[in-house]
Design goal:
single chain, alpha+beta, Rossmann fold, D-amino Acid Aminotransferase, Chain A, domain 1, Dna Ligase, domain 1, 3 domains, six-stranded antiparallel β-sheet, four-stranded antiparallel β-sheet
């Protein structure tokens, strides 16, 4: 399909939803809709999946393709992808399985290790399981402090606590478990925080490595949505060997999880130059301050072109 034919497609941009990341998703959706119109798409409609009439709108709107700009539960975890499969509407980014596996951090870690990608040590508490004192003390002895306590299936730094004192554990576990999902307790890997976007389906390619400079304990919500120039260093200040290894591992994670379209894997690079993967985002943020669009610009891909490529990848056989 050439670009003229592509621009005649009827595109539904899906955003909003019910997750903690609803407002960011709406920002992403608006930005993507504007970019697609700027790229030349004549028919672009932004739909809030939480709207009462969404199911009717998407099923009767004669849409040729859906651009998924959803984050968190029901949007990034395979739910909306399964619904679109039933409707036979092609959609951007990963399918049902890749989305579900990428969202479930403890499952993703099993896959990372099987693919030879280092990730932090730790344990997973089942939903509703308390952390007893003996297990807490054992974790501290084996992994040291600080430790990170986080939801096993959430994104955008929601529910994460950096625990530096044993008395913080109970509140941290309770906070991470508020959404009803399992809780991860992981060692704190120190080093340079980076992220590596990857674009593609059968032959995915890594974009420039982005170094994240926060001045905070970790890349939390406040920092994440401040202007990119305050926190993104591109290219990352790493050796060529470490940067290349991080890009190779991001591509390996993309393939191992079964991602399509794009992904963005977060790493800590240790002082020895070892990139340790933290997680993979199957639908990265797509606002003007987001990491993936910023990396793509440094690779010479402007935002309208980036969104166009995602549509093309969604339609790729």
């Amino acid at each position: 399909m050439d670009r003229d034919e592509l621009h005649n497609l009827n595109v539904a941009v899906l955003a909003g939803g019910w997750s903690d990341e609803r407002s960011i998703s709406l920002d992403s959706g608006r930005a993507c809709a504007r970019a697609l119109k700027e790229a030349g798409f004549a028919r672009v409609e932004l739909l809030d999946v939480a709207a009462d009439d969404f199911a009717r709108s998407i099923s009767t709107g004669s849409y040729d393709v859906a651009f998924v700009a959803l984050h968190g539960p029901f949007g990034e975890d395979g739910c909306i992808q399964g619904f679109l499969e039933i409707l036979h509407i092609p959609y951007t980014f990963s399918g049902v399985l890749g989305s579900a596996v990428g969202t479930e951090k403890e499952v993703a870690k099993v896959i990372y290790r099987a693919a030879g990608i280092p990730c932090p040590r730790g344990i997973t508490l089942a939903a509703g399981e308390a952390l007893d004192d003996s297990l807490r003390d054992q974790l501290i002895e084996e992994l040291g402090l600080p430790l990170f306590v986080k939801p096993a299936a959430n994104g955008s730094s929601y529910g994460i606590t950096r625990v530096s004192d044993p008395v913080q554990f109970a509140a941290a576990v309770e906070r991470a478990a508020q959404g009803g999902c399992p809780v991860l307790i992981e060692e704190c890997i120190t080093g340079t925080e980076i992220t590596v976007p990857v674009i593609g389906n059968r032959d995915p390619q890594a974009l420039p490595v982005v170094e994240i400079v926060t001045g905070a304990e970790f890349y939390d919500l406040k920092v994440k949505y401040e202007p990119a120039a305050l926190h993104h260093v591109i290219p990352a200040r790493l050796s060529q060997e470490a940067a290349s290894l991080a890009q190779a591992r991001a591509v390996a994670a993309h393939k191992a999880l079964g991602c399509r379209g794009c992904s963005r894997s977060d790493f800590i690079v240790t002082s020895e130059g070892e990139p340790v993967i933290l997680e993979t985002n199957t639908i990265p943020g797509m606002t003007e301050t987001s990491l993936l669009p910023d990396s793509a610009r440094h690779a010479g891909i402007e935002f309208p072109e980036l969104c166009t490529r995602f549509i093309e990848l969604a339609l790729e056989g």
